[in-house]
Design goal:
Helices cover about 35% and strands about 30% of the residues. By secondary structure, it is an alpha/beta fold. It has a single domain, classed as Transcription Regulator spoIIAA (2-Layer Sandwich). Strands 1, 2, 3, 4, 5 and 6 form a six-stranded mixed β-sheet that branches. The N and C termini lie far apart (about 30 Å).
């Protein structure tokens, strides 16, 4: 899994490429925790290059969303392919956090 970060539309966009599973989830959790600890309050995950997500990966999203909510911030998911979108929807994430069809759909400041 590769992780890249950039600022876009007032969000810290985190792009992940590859597989997000029990092996790679700790690396993403560490990266997201560092961003939040550094004061980022609007984090959006670009999932357009994500090939697979396991329950361990979903847990990382929930932990980050919870930390950001406690800091009056926002965590969102965007750009998921059909197979990832199905997992996100079945898991009930759209009722927990904002989910967008693409990074370009993020609300602008």
């Amino acid at each position: 899994m590769d992780i890249a970060k950039e600022m876009m539309a007032g969000h810290c966009v985190v792009r992940i490429t590859g597989r997000l599973d029990a092996v790679t989830a700790p690396e993403l959790e560490e990266a997201l925790t560092a961003l939040i600890d550094d004061g980022q309050t609007r984090v959006a995950m670009d999932l357009s290059s994500l090939e697979y997500v396991s329950s361990a990966g979903l847990r990382v999203f929930l932990v980050a969303a919870k930390k950001l909510k406690a800091a009056n911030g926002e965590f969102s998911l965007a750009g998921h392919k059909d197979n990832i979108k199905e997992v996100i929807e079945i898991s009930g994430f759209p009722s927990i956090m904002p989910c967008y069809d693409s990074i370009d759909a993020l609300p602008k400041d």
